[in-house]
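[User]
If only I could read backbone structure tokens as easily as an amino acid sequence. I have put the entry right below:
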Amino acid sequence: MKGRSEMAVEDKVAPEEKAQGAAAGTAPKSKAHKGEGPVKESLYADYHKIHPRHVTGKFRNIKNFLNIFLLAIYFAGPWFRWERPGAAPDQMILMDLSGQRGYFMGIEIWPQEVYYLTGLLILGAVGLFFFTALLGRVWCGFTCIQTVFTDVFVTVERWLEGDRNARIKMDRGPWTVNKFVRKSIKITIWLLISLATGFGWAAYFNDAPQLVVDLLHLNAGWGVYTTILLVGGFTFVLAGWAREQVCIYMCPWPRFQAAMFDEDSLIVTYEKWRGEPRGFAKKDTSFETRGHCVDCTLCVQVCPTGTDIRDGSQLSCIGCGLCIDACDAVMDRFNLPRGLITYDSNNRQIARAKGEPIPHNFVRSRTVIYAVLLVVVTAVMAWSLSSRSRLEVNVLHERSPLFVALSDGSLRNGYTFKVLNMGSLPQTYRLKLSGVEGASLRVVGLMEEDRTEVDLPVKGDSVGTFRVYVTAKPQVLKGKATDLIFVLTNAETGEVKEHKSLFAGPEK
């Protein structure tokens, strides 16, 4: 396996050879073909393991802080308590699949309210577009779960195997007792982290303290063990082995993130006008007639995806800014201005090259549109949550038969009437009819005679299902189908819910 410095040299030579071949009107040659015809270029690049070098600086500190913060939220989230009435677990964040509820602090989401999930997805998408238009791929570089866990796994690797050069030497060297022990310990720690990640995910779907007890006593359901193994397995493979391959080849976001950029988006850039021509330099080298880039390749060595930012903005660049930290440290050694590699926009780069620096342009059409959409979606969701009803009604008309003629000439229709009480306390609801004059109702199991209204008791956090018969005179009907409205009133709060259905009769 080749080192990063060797790869960097090859990267610089290969384009020149291709350019010379194109100028001469000949195709590139290989040893296999020995000039006997054009060589078909492969669409797949050879895999070279990336050994990111450790670096210190502003962006490294930001990544460290966000890693700790995000991992703390992920692993500690299920352990925060929130007192709830009834049988629901006292957990602040919980997706209770058995109870068909979703809980977040004081918010309780029922399956019928799955549209809130759609709102969250829209909010997340627009937010991602907004921050990408402003700051480039900050999601990929700092908060993506793949980036965070890869950073953790690489840190463990560096603690046990050393920094970049030591890891390259160990990987190239023969298997020894020292190498076997270190790599075994590394993989063991990776597995423990992966299993902890799987447990953390499962804990959001179960009562976390009880889940620990069930796991220790081997009483957890097969779904829990499957979840832990699947999530842990993916963490182990993607963060431990696939790493940058996920960002470069598997993730769809880099494929269309360029559409989110414009000339004023902040991205990681190399000041080519200042850095070129590049070349080796010593401490006392004069930079009056040459570029500031000393071709140390540290910017490539610290990159978690092995990207050479000096070749321009690329799909593989995740915008983490570690190359900026590395380059700034080199500029300090040579007493040169920082920012040869910097977080900047294309317009500002062009302006600085001309000696006409301009301020950042954060307020522009696309950022304003995204910001407005964020505010609107957030406001709609907040209003919907604050004003939503805790009562839902569903009415299903009996289809066979549509109606029954009684001995006194009246017509009767049957309905399955469901009342969803989303509150934790039992409620009593008064049911009336509207739309069909003189119509009366009867509820099986509650009353045996027809009435104009009836009280329906429903337990808290449950669905009350009732069999309702409605009777009406044929003279008041308007044909085969007459609009019938069920009016349900909460006896305690006065909340009214109406549901429109129909009353079926013979054709006139």
Remarks:
- The radius of gyration is 34 Å.
- The longest strand covers residues 411-421.
- The chain is about 40% helix and 15% strand.
